[in-house]
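May I ask you to review the protein record following this short note?
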Amino acid sequence: MGENIDLTKNPVLQEALKEFEVKNMEQEVVSQPAASQKAESPKIIIWAMKHSGGLIKDERQAEYALLGFTAIAIIASLFIFLKSGPSTEPPPLTPLIEQAGSPADLLP
């Protein structure tokens, strides 16, 4: 029934199509994702790049360098914490008792 109807020559449909395209273009401009905009690098990354003496050239290298530094700091902290546990031998008490003297020396 509607096989031979040519809708491209209908001025009402053409006008509606143009309105739809204009509205659609406005929505596409407004709904741009925020991820496409260049986000500012974290300050720690910028600091690492600035103070590396030229060794760190881009953000990815700075991220890996900071990750490595963090891993080394955690390992060092664990090593110090585990090695500083209680000692196995008690402190000697004999020299302290000899230095104190007898109770008779303390009384007048």
User: Anything to note?
Assistant: The mean pLDDT is 79. Residues 57 and 90 are 54 Å apart (CA to CA). Residues 59-83 form the longest helix (25 residues).
